[in-house]
Amino acid sequence: MATEKEKKKIDSYEKAILSFGEAVQAFRKGNCEKAVESFKALIEKHASEKELVDRARTYIKICQEVKNKETTPPKTFADFYEDGVSLMNQGSYEEALKLFKKAIDKDPDHAKILYSMAAIYQSMGDADQSLEFLKKSIQKDKYFKILAQNDSDFEALREDKRFKILTKLV
């Protein structure tokens, strides 16, 4: 049978686990501010739970890195491209397009950005612009011809003669 001291330790650990779970939930919901607050409270109240305290500190560092990234405006081609792809994946096509245009200002001949712009224009329903950027990307790098053949972003263009010619599907 567990002693009183052992029961208190088990009770303390269970409370620490619950606190940790709540903090992780806030983190997963994207609420880093609340998560950091919860992780700090866990560290303060349950300092003896070394493993949980170490994990909490790791989550706090991740939250701080996310916050720093959000406050740092994009400057390089890679910054504009990565932020644009993120916005594109969220369905914010106009915002992503703005960032891609800034990336083109940094490196006008980068095939990857041209291809991404083709995908955005296709997602926005502008087949002509999509095909124009797809053509430019393929002219820079033939790899994008193969990629476009299998890319679901261009599914609606599969039967378009211009797409078939560009990707040599005829």
Q: What integer is the average pLDDT?
A: 87
**Beta content:** under 5%
Tally of helical segments: 9
Overall structural domain count: 2
H/E order of the elements?
HHHHHHHHH
**Using DSSP, what is the number of strands?**
0
Largest sheet: none
| Shape descriptor | elongated
CATH H-tier superfamily of the largest domain: Tetratricopeptide repeat domain
* CATH topology description of the largest domain: Serine Threonine Protein Phosphatase 5, Tetratricopeptide repeat
For the record, the CATH architecture of the largest domain stands as Alpha Horseshoe
Radius of gyration: 25 Å
Q: Span from first to last CA?
A: 78 Å
Share of helix among residues? over 70%
Name of the CATH first level of the largest domain: Mainly Alpha
Give the uncertain stretches in residue-range form.
none
Structural class: mainly alpha
Helix-strand layout with pairing:
Elements: H1 4-28, H2 32-45, H3 50-71, H4 77-89, H5 93-106, H6 111-123, H7 127-140, H8 143-150, H9 161-167
Helix pairs in contact: 1-2, 1-3, 2-3, 4-5, 5-6, 6-7, 7-9
Structure description:
- The structure is a single chain.
- Helix 4 packs antiparallel against helix 5 (93-106) and helix 5 (93-106) packs antiparallel against helix 6 (111-123).
- The chain has two domains: 4-71, Methane Monooxygenase Hydroxylase, Chain G, domain 1 (Up-down Bundle); 77-167, Tetratricopeptide repeat domain (Serine Threonine Protein Phosphatase 5, Tetratricopeptide repeat), CATH 1.25.40.10.
- 76% of the residues lie in helices and 0% in strands.
- The model has no long low-confidence stretch (mean pLDDT 87).
- It is an all-alpha fold and 170 residues long.
